[in-house]
Design brief:
Shape: globular
CATH class: Alpha Beta
Helix content: 25-40%
Number of domains: 1
Oligomer: single chain
CATH architecture: Roll
Strand content: 35-45%
């Protein structure tokens, strides 16, 4: 029962992170030791609260509005969550009707209520495999349906 509760909590936290609007709301999920890995997109790995905050400020500053729609979210155990995301955004300074769309996946490792590491992936299959490996490395058993 405790594992089910923990899994539900990190899934709930991941959903809340995806729904967060603005820098302050997003940053409440990150702590001083958090890592935000964007290397699979040709961007840096941001380590620590100040670096992540600067990245998030720049990211949000690029858009007039942005929404993340979770297409899939799976708690795999031991604080690891896989999610597939579709982002829809309007770039700053663009006409009202202009929208950009991006699909990507993230693997979030939680420690308590804070992100320990968030890794973004272009490829959903790569992300899902990485999440499974992470859980197995930590000694968890993954059910066949995940």
């Amino acid at each position: 029962m405790a594992e089910e509760s923990t899994t539900a909590d990190v899934v709930r936290l991941t959903r809340a992170l995806a729904e967060a609007k603005g820098v302050e709301a997003t940053m409440r999920f990150f702590g001083p030791q958090s890592v935000y890995d964007m290397s699979r997109f040709g961007l840096p790995v941001f380590e620590g609260y100040p670096a992540i905050r600067s990245f998030i400020e720049d990211w949000y500053g690029s858009y007039q509005e942005a929404d993340d729609d979770l297409q899939e979210i799976v708690g795999l155990g031991n604080g690891v969550v896989f999610s597939a995301v579709r982002e829809t955004a309007r770039p700053s300074g663009s006409p009202e009707h202009a929208r950009v769309h991006a699909e990507y996946s993230v693997v979030v490792e939680w420690t308590g209520a804070k992100v320990a590491r968030l890794t973004a992936y272009r490829d959903t299959d790569e992300a899902r495999a990485a999440a499974r490996r992470l859980v197995v490395e930590r000694g968890e058993v993954i059910s066949r349906e995940t």
